[in-house]
Design a protein that fits this description.
482 residues, mainly alpha, Serine Threonine Protein Phosphatase 5, Tetratricopeptide repeat, 2 strands, 1% strand
């Protein structure tokens, strides 16, 4: 198939210009002295406000430990930690570790609030840490790798992570970011071997829950649901802070939702919110489950609460589809408009949103644009999630032969597609149906509904209608004896 070309575009951020949808790979420039770099970085720190009352409380004792050890921290603790490190760096500008902690705290705050404006600040702090330390700074390298993963620049994440791993081959958090980068690049063999190395490390009790949560993600991608769920259950039981426990409970709820267990998913999301009422991913999870249970008013309330604290384009898309399934087109369109607005905002912070936008455009916008976006993403980062989205976009423009190739990649265990996804099976079945491959189409649509009978308020009715059109398989006479 001929490669389609996308048009050029640019975005600007407060710290440095960057190409649209791409994180620039930074290198240290020899002509810039460490003093000049640090001086410039200090100018970016906000001025300390004049206080009329008592000073803000110092960050909790676990916040710096959690941030540097790759574990979740509560949002208020992150905000206090950022303020504390900024104040410290005004008088200790050559403290490389403080710069690394500041950068990683910005990164975590950006993830929790879905505010990509934190990411240029995180990048600048981490680059400053690297420059102050003379380059051999594993915490800064690892932070840059984690930042690149969050921005979906998996090639850059791999480069930063492999540099960090060479310096500190027994540091478990580096293996965690490398697993994410290899997965994003579609290198599932490297992802699995890296997990094996991680599990072979002798990690302490404090970080063992985070290691188990990382193992769970890989097991989930391989289709090992029971193993993934067991790892998360153990991680949640051993978590040492409410924020950490809420994170693992939320992931457990997401696993339960993927297998269509509404009550178990809701139980986990509710438990996560009891541990940390600000856990927005759990709120969005409740929205999915409550909609599937027919508790529509509560579902809409849950989604709105999630979007209030974490206005991600993904949640806006889910809420828009829920409104559309209810026939509330005007409210659905308002959310769809927000998808583009928030994706543009994220791109200004260096986030690659081509996958999300490609999915959105394929079903709710310009289908040709979806193909262009996703072909570009596949060329750079050929993971199974991109294969599925590209296959569906090609189907939506009528190129079903090519679409079938990518849909099969997304569900081929030998190519990394071991995850049991109702959406992937639905896409494959619909494409096969269009190609008049009746038997495989029926089998994959039935599989989608077995995996999760509630996987999408818009797509489940389509799957059921398609199965009705396909009808029952014909009765075949038994082969003759002898």
């Amino acid at each position: 198939m001929e490669k389609r070309q996308s048009g050029p575009g640019t975005s600007l951020v407060a710290v440095r210009p960057r190409r649209r949808l791409r994180m620039l790979r930074r290198v240290l420039v020899a002509s810039v002295t460490g003093t000049a770099a640090v001086g410039g970085a200090l100018m970016l720190l906000p001025r300390e406000p004049v206080r009329s009352g008592p000073p803000a409380p110092a960050p909790g004792p676990r916040a710096p430990v959690a941030v540097t050890a790759g574990m979740p921290a509560a949002l208020p603790d992150l905000t206090r930690l950022i303020g504390d490190r900024e104040n410290h760096l005004r008088t200790h500008p050559r403290d490389a570790r403080a710069w690394a902690v500041l950068g990683t705290a910005y990164l975590q705050r950006g993830r929790q609030t879905a505010d990509a404006a934190n990411y240029p600040q995180a990048e600048h702090a981490l680059q400053t840490s690297l420059e102050v330390a003379g380059g051999a700074n594993v915490e800064a390298l690892e932070g840059l790798a984690a930042l690149a993963n969050t921005r979906r620049d998996f090639a850059a994440a791999r480069e930063w992570g492999e540099q960090a791993n060479k310096i500190a081959p027994k540091r478990w958090t580096t293996y965690a970011v490398l697993i994410d980068s290899y997965t994003g690049l579609g290198d599932y063999k490297a992802s699995r071997s890296t997990l094996d190395k991680l599990m072979a490390l002798r990690t302490g009790a404090a970080v063992r829950p985070a290691v188990m949560a990382r193992a769970s993600a890989v097991y989930r991608d391989r289709g090992w649901r029971e193993d993934a769920a067991a790892q998360l259950a153990d991680a949640a039981a051993a978590a040492r802070s409410p924020a950490e426990q809420a994170d693992y409970l939320t992931r457990a709820g997401q696993l339960a939702w993927e297998r269509g267990d509404r009550q178990d998913a809701l139980r986990h999301f509710d438990a996560a919110l009891r541990a940390d009422p600000g856990q927005r991913a759990a709120m969005a999870g409740r929205g999915r489950v409550l909609a599937a249970l027919g508790r529509t008013s509560e579902a809409l309330t849950a989604y709105r609460a999630a979007l209030t604290g974490q206005p991600s384009p993904e949640y806006a898309l889910e809420l828009g589809e829920l409104y559309e399934s209810l026939g509330r087109q005007e409210e659905a369109q308002a959310q769809y408009d927000l998808v583009r607005t928030r994706a543009d905002r994220d791109q200004a912070g260096g986030v690659d949103e081509e996958l999300l936008l490609g999915r959105f455009e394929a079903d709710h916008g310009n289908r040709e644009d979806a193909v262009v976006l996703l072909e570009d993403e596949w060329e750079r980062q050929p993971g199974i999630d991109v294969a599925d989205a590209l296959g569906w976009a090609l189907h939506r423009v009528g190129d079903d032969e090519e679409a079938l190739h990518y849909a099969r990649v997304a569900t081929d265990k030998d190519k990394g597609g071991g995850v049991r996804s109702a959406l992937y099976s639905f896409h494959l079945g619909m494409i096969e149906g269009e190609l008049e491959q009746t038997g495989p189409a029926r089998r994959h649509l039935q599989e989608a509904l077995r995996i999760n009978p509630y996987f999408s308020p818009l797509r489940v009715p389509v799957a059921r209608e398609a199965l009705a059109r396909l009808g029952e398989p014909p009765d075949e006479e038994p082969p003759p004896e002898g």
